[in-house]
Amino acid sequence: MTTSSIEIDVVKGDDDLERILALQRRNLTFSEDGFVTVHHTFDVLSAFHALMPSVVARHQRDVVGYALSMPRQASRLVPVLAPMFERLEALAILAAQRWYVMGQICVDEAWRGQGLFDKLYEEHRRRYAGQFDWLATEIAVRNPRSRKAHARVGFVEIDRYRDATDEWSVVALRLG
């Protein structure tokens, strides 16, 4: 498998959303190679997509990576994420800036280490730099693979905190 056969694009319809959910389910379990912490429903993903299309990596028709777009209006769609949005709203670095949230990024295990993570973020930058100044997200501190990958593509830590479930590194990427 080579990345030359990969298409980086936005979600095109329900099939892509179903394939995102399947990949998400496979990566909810903790692993040193990375993991995701929030499980979304089809309806929530569909609502995200209606607000702002998410970016996917496709091999043939299969989604092998995704990077979920969540504009500020999405905060009401996933109540567990509302505190993150509130925290971001309060950060001085993002005040008076145009920003959105990377709701989750994931690359299928078989495709890791081939640059897809970077390509997903490159597509976000290409598509959304004209509309937004910053892209922000939170990463569990116990997920060093994700923290290292985000730093590699240019994210910087802008906050850190602990809640009832984990310790979180809040990171942001300047898009412009």
Describe the protein's architecture and organization:
This protein has helices at 14-26, 42-51, 82-90, 116-128, 144-152; strands at 6-10, 55-59, 62-70, 99-107, 134-140, 156-162, 167-174. By secondary structure, the protein is of the alpha+beta class. The chain has one domain (3-174): Gcn5-related N-acetyltransferase (GNAT) (Aminopeptidase). A seven-stranded mixed beta sheet has the order 1-2-3-4-5-7-6, with helices on both faces. Helix 4 (116-128) links the parallel strand 4 and strand 5 (134-140). The radius of gyration is 15 Å and the shape is globular.
Q: Main traits of this protein?
A:
176 residues; alpha+beta; Aminopeptidase; seven-stranded mixed sheet; 28% strand; globular
